[in-house]
Amino acid sequence: MNAIEVIIIGIGVVFITLSILTLSTYFFGYIVNKFFVSEDEDEKKKVAAIVAAIHSRGGH
Amino acid sequence: MFEIGLLALTWRSLVMIIVGVILIYLGIAKKMEPLLLGPIGFAVILANIPLSGITADATTDIGPGLLYIIYTELIATGIIPLIIFLGIGTMTDFSPLLANPKTFLLGAAAQIGIFLALGLSIILGFDISQAAAIGIIGGADGPTAIYTATQIIEGQEGIIAAVTVSAYSYMALVPIIQPPIIKALTTQKQRKIKMGKMREVSQLEMIIFPIGVTIIIGLIVPTALPLVGMLMLGNLFRVSGVMDRLSDVGGGALMDIATIMLGLGVGFLMTGNSFIQLETLKILLLGVFAFATATAGGTLFGQIFYKLSKGKINPMIGAAGVSAVPMASRVVQKIGQKENPASHLLMHAMGPNVAGVIGSATAAGILIGLLA
User: Fold this and answer.
1) Given A1, A32, A52, which is nearest B93 (Cβ)?
2) What are the structural domain ranges in chain B?
């Protein structure tokens, strides 16, 4: 396999995979919010999830 | 037979001992990744003092040495990088990505640095496997870089060492490498853009996410599964709400143990004979190129988002698509706030930032699948 093939396959598969993840995340987010999350869920919980602290990765 | 080490000391070993001392200095005095540079620097000193047997392999009278065992059993097998990835999963908050899933694509765009560096490495005379190992520096992820390099170019210790040192060093230098590139590729008006509030993310979404990502990536790029699987397992510990003990251990004691082992294993690789080569210098320069083009790729894709959103998305967040978490996000936040004190881009940049972690692990899996 030559370099051009590796580059084209590499970039292509990364974009395809992450595009599928994008669509899947939108889809499951819609389904979950439409059917499984009640509107009166504790507001504090949801806000806490959004603003969860960004932890250091310990140098990695 | 007893021999004095001093008499066997070569100039290459002496240079590497000095390098070890400098790494420790940078870690302690300059606070540059001290948790890594401390053990790496000390291990470099250990590995370059002659006749100790600490790096000797099993075929020698005094071997196998401690550093040899750590490297061959824990690093080259991929165990330690994968345990570290599990720990990273326990520390990573994917909710900004869940709130804005399209930023996955910014994480993908930033991986272009990997493949451009691969191409340039070929031009500079490396073979395709070596070039892939060098290119992965552009993934801006230490464990991914060392895991990929050990899988693709097994036995080429000098190159593996240079790739690892380059990946970790440049991660520490993200605040220096990225700003000029971001500023060159965006206008002041764009850098001032203040982005709107992100939507709320439920716990159920956060629990489904690591399971779904593991299944999807595993089915598309099976060779990425060890990295992605460990990352997502760690994240499941974090978000489940009922595995706090596992989360604490994975991101705490276990991660610290793995970090010590990684440092000692990388130090083993950095012996004078294998590290002081012209190739090492080339790899260090290619590492800068990989980081720079990854940043440029993400920022330019951010420009597409800017156009499509009619100016609502700040293109700078694309630069955070390199997976140096959270340094790249902090760089974007800092530049944004300098231009517009009312702008808070940190959480918006965290979306592409954590997508970059998934993107670089995916790219690593593709390279391993194609070339290992």
Assistant:
1) A52
2) 63-371
Residue B89 near chain A (CB below 8 Å): no
Interface predicted TM-score (ipTM) of this complex, two decimals: 0.91
**Beta-sheet strands, E only, within chain B:** none
pLDDT at site A44: 59
Closest CA to B279 of B114, B175, B134: B134
Interface contact A21-B325, CB threshold 8 A? no
Give B170-199 pLDDT, tens digit per residue.
Answer: 887 899 999 999 999 999 999 999 999 999
Q: What is the mean pLDDT of residues B53-79?
A: 91
Measured between CB atoms, does B220 come within 8 Å of chain A? yes
Taking all residues of chain B, what is their mean pLDDT, rounded to a whole number?
94
b (16+ CB within 10 A) / e for B91-120? bbbbbbbbbbbbbbbbbbbbbbbbbbbbbb
In chain A, domain spans: 3-50
Q: What is the pLDDT of residues B101-142, one digit of tens each?
A: 999 999 999 999 999 999 999 999 999 999 999 999 998 888
CB neighbours of B16 closer than 8 A, spacing ≥ 6? B44, B47, B48, B270, B271, B272, B275, B276
Instruction: Name the burial class of residue B372, with classes exposed (0-12), middle (13-18) and buried (19+) by CB atoms within 10 angstroms of its CB.
Output: middle
Count of Cβ atoms closer than 10 Å to residue B57 Cβ: 12
CB A39 within 8 A of CB B187: no
pLDDT for the residue B61: 83
Query: Which chain A residues are closer than 8 Å to B261 by Cβ?
Result: none
